[in-house]
Specification:
Strand content: 5-15%
Number of helices: 6
Number of strands: 2
Strand order of the largest sheet: 1-2
Largest sheet: 2 strands, parallel
Helix content: 40-55%
């Protein structure tokens, strides 16, 4: 996961190189996983964006909404690949401070996004200890 802060009028596909270069945890090639896949929407269909994705070692999966709708009709039990991105946006939108950028400094806004990402990740970890009382959960 990586976060890049840009102006609201900058197209996402123009910053794909910065986003892929800013990934903090690099994935090591393992025998069980031979390739990295990147799911994106139709905005990343340009030849330049596809070259950048390929240069970073990802296999691009760029599908527009019509193709996703057709796949959904054929296989209704499967979720769209973009669902991961959309649900991530939903998790970030729960932090009302981030919905509208009131921060003047880019570093402050970026720090708040990193804090929100940390809280989101922490909430996904199943805990066996009650944090408030420090006791084991029963039941």
């Amino acid at each position: 996961m990586s976060i890049i802060v840009t102006a609201a009028n900058v197209n996402d596909a123009k910053r794909i190189d910065e986003v892929l270069s800013a990934i903090v945890v690099k994935r090591e090639p393992t025998p069980t996983r031979r390739s990295k896949h990147l799911c994106a929407d139709a905005g990343y269909r340009s030849a330049q964006a596809l070259r950048i994705i390929d240069a970073h070692g990802y296999i691009p999966h760029v599908v527009d909404r019509r193709q996703e709708a057709a796949t959904k009709r054929r296989q209704p039990w499967k979720k769209a690949h973009r669902w991961v991105v959309e649900v991530c946006h939903s998790w970030f939108n729960r932090f009302r401070k981030l919905l509208v950028r009131y921060e003047k400094l880019e570093r402050s806004f970026l720090a708040l996004n990193h804090l929100a990402a940390t809280i989101i990740a922490f909430r996904k970890v199943p805990l066996v200890v009650n944090i408030i009382y420090g006791s084991l959960l029963s039941g």
